[in-house]
């Protein structure tokens, strides 16, 4: 309550242990995701964030996850599956913490990306509960009053 009220970011560690998704291995995940579709971003999606000239493709999650084994060519931005609404089949594999009022937020989203994936500077319209299931991600957060310094 007090963190949300003051807009204070909070890091909660080891909170996903009871998620079935968290305990699935790679092979089980690929089987589970086989028929699920998602939208992937290709090319220089960082520079083209606000452009109409963006390369989006519909891809099965299983094919996309399998493609992560092939690294991008040097100087090439790797493809990224981002901001997809979490399908019902995956929603069944996550558990919302008791302190999270789901009805106050938009439908959950999923992002899948290889090492080297970048998210351009942006602001979200609502507060977030971000859950990292596999791998790691770094965030740089800026308070709203720093907006003029961000360009």
In short:
By secondary structure, the chain is α+β, with helices and mostly antiparallel strands. It has helices at residues 2-6, 20-23, 26-33, 61-67, 88-91; strands spanning 37-42, 55-60, 80-85, 109-112.
Give the helix level as a range of percent.
Answer: 10-25%
Q: Which descriptor suits the 3D outline? A: globular
Structural class: alpha+beta
Largest sheet: number of strands, sense, barrel closure: 4 strands, antiparallel
Oligomer: single chain
Number of domains: 1
Spatial sequence of strands, sheet with the most strands = 2-1-3-4
pLDDT average, as an integer?
A: 79
CATH superfamily: Cupin
Secondary-structure element pattern, one letter each: HHHEEHEHE
| CA(first)-CA(last) distance | 32 Å
So, CATH architecture? Sandwich
Percent of residues in beta strands?
5-15%
Number of strands: 4
Number of helices: 5
List the uncertain runs: none
Protein model, in words:
With 151 residues, this protein is of the alpha+beta class. It has one domain (2-150): Sandwich (Jelly Rolls), CATH 2.60.120.650. Helix content is 19%, strand content 15%. The chain has helices at residues 2-6, 20-23, 26-33, 61-67, 88-91; strands spanning 37-42, 55-60, 80-85, 109-112. It starts with a helix and ends in a 39-residue tail after the last strand.
């Amino acid at each position: 309550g007090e963190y949300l009220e003051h807009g204070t970011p909070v890091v909660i560690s080891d909170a996903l242990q009871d998620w079935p998704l968290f305990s699935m291995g790679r092979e089980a995940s690929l089987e589970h995701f086989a028929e699920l579709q998602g939208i992937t971003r290709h090319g220089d999606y960082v520079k083209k964030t606000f452009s109409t000239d963006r390369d989006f493709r519909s891809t099965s999650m299983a094919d996309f996850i399998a493609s992560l084994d092939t690294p991008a060519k040097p100087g090439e931005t790797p493809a990224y599956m981002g901001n997809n609404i979490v399908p019902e089949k995956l929603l069944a594999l996550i558990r919302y913490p008791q302190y999270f009022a789901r009805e106050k937020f938009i439908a959950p989203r999923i992002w899948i990306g290889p090492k080297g994936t970048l998210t351009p500077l942006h602001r979200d319209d609502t507060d977030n509960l971000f859950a990292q299931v596999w791998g790691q991600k770094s965030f740089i957060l800026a308070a709203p009053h720093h907006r003029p310094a961000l360009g």
